[in-house]
Each structure stands twice: as C-alpha cells, then as structure tokens.
C-alpha cells in the first residue's frame, strides 16, 4: 500500500523506510508505521554540512479509509544534530504528502473535495471517509470567496433562489455565463438596490460588455391567476382539488399532451393529459381565456416569432382578464428590444434553472445550511 502512495504522490523512495508493506489493524483503525529519514544539505543555522542522528519525532497523518476503517500513517521523522553549532533540526514532510500544521493527507483532502462537490451532507460524507466533519469545514474556510470585478460575460443569465436564514433578503441572487455556463456571482440579497450597488463595482467598460438578459414572467402571471380562480371554489369541492393537484398540466405545451388514457383517483375516472387540460381550463371562463393567451404566447416564443408574441400582448383586454394578469403581460412590452434579441439568439436561462435544481437538491440532502458563506462555497464547488 505504501509503495502505491509513494508513486501517486511522487515521494522519494530513499527518504522513506517502512516496517510493513500493508497497514496493521489497531482496534477500530489501521496504522502503517514508516520512518522519514531525509537529510539536510546544510544546517539551517550555521550552514555547515555535517550532522549526526539525534532521535526521531513522531507525526500522525490520516490517509483515506481502508477496508471500512480509518487509516493513519505513523511517521517517525529522523532528527539531526549539527556537529558544529549543536542545533537540532527536523526535516519538513513533503507538501505533496501533507501540508504543514495539518493531519489530513493530500490524498484525504482530494477525497473531501470530491465529496464537497457532490450533492451530499457533510455529516454523511464525513462518515463515509471516516473523518470528522471539521475536516470538511477547515477546507471550506480556506476557500476564497472574494469577488473579482474585472470581468463580466456578454450573456448574463440571472435568477433567484431560497438560501439561508442569515441572508439579508428573503431570496439570494445567482448569475451565470450564458455561453460557458460558469458561475459569475452569488449574492445573499436579490433586492434591486443591493444589485445596483454590486454591479456598479465593475468598471463601466466591463459593464458595457453585457449584451442582454431576459426574465420571463408569463407562467408566474398565469399561476397567480390560477390560484385566485381556485380559491373561488370550496376547499372540499372537486374543482378546487383538481386545480390544486393537476396544476402542472396547464403549463404543458398543449400539442405535446398525450392522449394515452390513465386512471385518475382524484377524478375517479379514466382520462388523458389532453382531456384533463380541457377539463381544468373549463372550470371558469377567466381561466379558460388566460390559458389560451398563455399557450399562444408560449408558442410564439418557442417559434421565435416576436411579431406574433407582441401582437398577443397588445390585444389583451381587461374586460375578459383581470387587470393584474394583463399588466404582468404588458410589462414585457416595455422590454421589446431585449426580448427580440433573446428570440433571435441561441441563449436561454436553462443553465441557471438547472443550477437552481442542483442547489435545491444540495440544500435538501444537507437538511439546510446555517451560514450563507458555507452554502455559497458548496455551490461554487458543485459548479
């Protein structure tokens, strides 16, 4: 085992001496005893080059787990006494094996970083590697989190997500590169005044490189209207129950709805996705009209037909639809230049939406995070 460690970490064989080739079990752990006998070329005090051995100094380094138990490298470091000045010196262990002042080997730190990149809680990952959770937090604390304000990507995809309780705002802010899908910014506050202050830290010539960003609110406007219409029914009525349980069918592209029938326990009948959508949207005239508008707008957006898209928005009538719904759609008309640019370029907000799914999965398996700083570092490693 030690021979493979030496090859992987490029250690000099002449500087090491091992009592056994494989670690021996001591209680609930394995130990591999070795001696580190590297010599000095010159005394660090008087710069003379004549020494004699002067005992050993013990050092314990934890390796990766072995056969389901923690494994330690018990190192006896050979000490040397200068024949001229009498000062005793001890060689430093190679940085490729272990960093100065730490007990975790480089091999173990690599495994810890791989665990931090995965969607796994620190306590569970620590049990897998047979180490303390503090080994994970020590590495996280070494990660730099300072933002650099010298570069911004041309295509910026932005979104918000629910983070930790110590965030200044209720939601955190995330920005990604629309071309390379790399993380650009993670902020603990998504409020406009905070974002303006943050992005003003970038030089003006850097900010001018950003070409556009698009925020869609079509489905949000329709979903809010669906909830309003649903609350008009009694909570025990079938209409309320159906609109609550099958809401996601209303957001599907109607042309993609399947006609394959399945048995619905809530409806107590056989139905299909196609028939279910027709039934749900017919519960109220307002919901029916809003669904038709949503489908038409999304179809125009998918086909990159900006003229048809804005025609649908301009033709909305408050006599048929609620004022709040109409205003949310009409807000998009004030962003015609950006939306037209988005429709005629190959970029989308898909990368940041996918990252948000990873963030939610990480937060769920970790049972939440107390501090945004640790949450931010895990997200950066995961990206």
Automatic annotation (TrEMBL):
Domain Transposase IS204/IS1001/IS1096/IS1165 zinc-finger: 42-85
Regions annotated as coiled coil: none
InterPro entries found in the cross-reference section: Transpos_ISL3, Transposase_DDE, Transposase_Znf
Domain of life: Bacteria
Residues in Transposase IS204/IS1001/IS1096/IS1165 DDE domain copies: 211-379
One Pfam family of this chain: DDE_Tnp_ISL3
Name under which the protein is recorded: ISL3 family transposase
Organism expressing this protein natively: Lactococcus hircilactis
């Amino acid at each position: 085992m030690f021979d493979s460690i030496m090859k992987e970490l490029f250690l000099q064989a002449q500087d090491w001496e091992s009592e056994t080739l494989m670690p021996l079990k001591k209680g609930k752990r394995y130990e591999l005893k070795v001696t580190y006998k590297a010599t000095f070329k010159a005394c660090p005090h008087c710069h003379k080059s004549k020494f004699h051995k002067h005992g050993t100094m013990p050092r314990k380094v934890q390796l990766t787990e072995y056969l389901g138990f923690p494994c330690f490298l018990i190192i006896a470091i050979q000490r040397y006494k200068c024949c001229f000045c009498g000062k005793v010196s001890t060689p430093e262990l190679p940085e490729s094996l272990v960093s100065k002042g730490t007990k975790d080997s480089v091999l173990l730190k690599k495994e810890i970083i791989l665990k931090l990149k995965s969607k796994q809680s620190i306590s569970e990952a620590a049990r897998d590697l047979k180490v303390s959770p503090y080994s994970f937090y020590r590495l996280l604390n070494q990660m730099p989190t300072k933002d650099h304000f010298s570069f911004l990507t041309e295509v910026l995809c932005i979104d918000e997500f629910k983070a930790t309780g110590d965030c200044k705002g209720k939601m955190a802010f995330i920005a990604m590169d629309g071309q390379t899908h790399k993380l650009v910014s993670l902020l603990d506050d998504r409020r406009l005044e905070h974002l303006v202050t943050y992005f003003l830290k970038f030089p003006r010539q850097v900010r001018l490189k950003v070409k556009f960003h698009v925020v869609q609110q079509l489905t949000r406007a329709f979903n809010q209207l669906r909830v309003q219409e649903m609350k008009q029914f009694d909570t025990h009525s079938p209409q309320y129950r159906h609109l609550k349980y099958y809401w996601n069918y209303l957001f599907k592209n109607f042309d993609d709805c399947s006609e394959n029938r399945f048995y619905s326990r809530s409806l107590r009948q056989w139905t299909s996705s196609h028939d279910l959508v027709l039934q749900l949207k017919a519960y109220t005239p307002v919901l029916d009209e809003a669904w038709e508008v949503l489908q038409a707008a999304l179809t125009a957006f998918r086909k990159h037909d900006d003229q048809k898209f804005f025609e649908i928005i301009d033709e909305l009538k408050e006599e048929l639809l609620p004022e709040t719904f109409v205003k949310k759609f009409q807000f998009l008309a004030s962003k015609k230049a950006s939306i037209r640019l988005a429709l005629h370029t190959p970029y989308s907000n898909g990368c940041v939406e996918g990252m948000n799914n990873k963030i939610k999965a990480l937060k769920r398996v970790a049972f939440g995070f107390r501090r945004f700083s640790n949450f931010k570092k895990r997200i950066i490693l995961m990206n």
